[in-house]
Amino acid sequence: MHRMARGYLGVLASLWLGISAAHASNSTEPILKLPASSMQPAKSKSFVVNEALGRAWVEVDFYHALSETSDHYRVAIPGLRYDKAQSQVIFESDDNRFVCATVVTSGWGIFKQKQVQPTGNCELSHRYVKKAVDNGFTVEQIEQFEVHFKPQKSDAT
Questions:
Q1: Is the pLDDT of residue 14 over 50?
Q2: pTM for the whole thing?
């Protein structure tokens, strides 16, 4: 009976952890993890939209110094979408609504373009983290690059 109770507790704990990790507003889980190498994060961690589909995501760019090339990663965040009517990137979670960015049109004629400008309500940050990895023979400290998304209420609201 004791083993069965522990099994149920384990299942409940796993479900709880899975549900809490799915809500980015309550979690500090990274939205992107990559092994650190010769790549360096560019300044570009930005919101990108697809107006036709009403979708939004985060794009992270990396620069490889040795080969002088760049890699681009698209990261979908559950709850992040594009509201075409208001030209805003919106994140919704647990009855909270955050305006992460606005889309503005600049230029004229054939030079007209749309730019996604962050509002500061949704922080995109990165950091290097050392993780212990057990390969079955030894435990090694591996450095990872992580990108984090943290929505926050603005002082004006």
A1: no
A2: 0.69
Q: What are the b/e assignments for 67-79, b being 16+ CB within 10 Å?
A: eeeeeeeebebeb
Buried b (16+ CB within 10 A) or exposed e, 110-139: eeeeeebebeebbebeeeeeeeeeeeeeee
In the predicted model, is pLDDT for residue 18 greater than 70? no
User: How many angstroms from the chain centroid is the CA of residue 45?
Assistant: 9
CA-to-CA distance for 153 and 111, rounded, in angstroms? 35
Domain ranges of the chain: 2-151
Tokens of 133: 């990895």
Which pLDDT does position 12 carry in this prediction?
Answer: 33
